[in-house]
Amino acid sequence: MKYASIVFAVIIVLFMAIVPPVMGGYAVQALTSYLISGLLALAVGLITGYGRLFNLGVGANFGVSAYAVAILTHQGITEPFTLFAVAIIAGVVVSLLFAFYALIASGVEYLMLTFLTTLAFASIPHAANDLTGGDNGLTVNGGLRVSFGLSPLAGNGFYWFVLGIVVLCTCVSWYVLASQTGKAIQAIGRNPSRAAAMGYSVAQYRVALTVFSSVIASIGGWLFALQRSFVFIDLLGLANSTNGLVYALVGGVDSILGPLLGAALLRALTDQLSRGSTQSSLYIGIVLMLVVYFLPDGLVGLWRSIRARYGLQFSRPTPELGEKQHGIN
Amino acid sequence: MGSTNLTIRARLAVGLCGLTLALAACSAPAATTPAATTAAAPPAAGKPAATTAPAVAAGGATTAAPTGTPIKVGIMDDVTGVGAIEGALMRVSSELAIQRANASGGINGHPLQPIYVDPKGDANQAQQLAQQLAQQDNVDVLSGGIFSPECLGVQALAAKLQIVYVPLNGCASDALTTKSCDKYTFRVYPAGRQTTDTAVAYEVKTFGPKWAIIYPDYALGQSDLATSKAALAKNGGEYVTEIPVPLGEANVTPYVTKVPTDGSVTVLNVRATGSDLARVMSVIQQFGINQKVAIVTALGKESFAGVYPEALNGAIITGTRPSDGLPGNADDQKYMDDWLALAKKNPDLIGPLGGVDHVTPGNNNGYNAYMSMTALVLAMRKANFTGKADTEKLVSAFETLTVPQGPDFPDGQLIMNKDDHQGRTTYYLLKINGQKEEVVQSFPADQLPTIGDCKIA
Question: Which of B38, B119, B253, B272 is 20 to 30 A removed from B216 (C-alpha atoms)?
Answer without folding.
Answer: B119
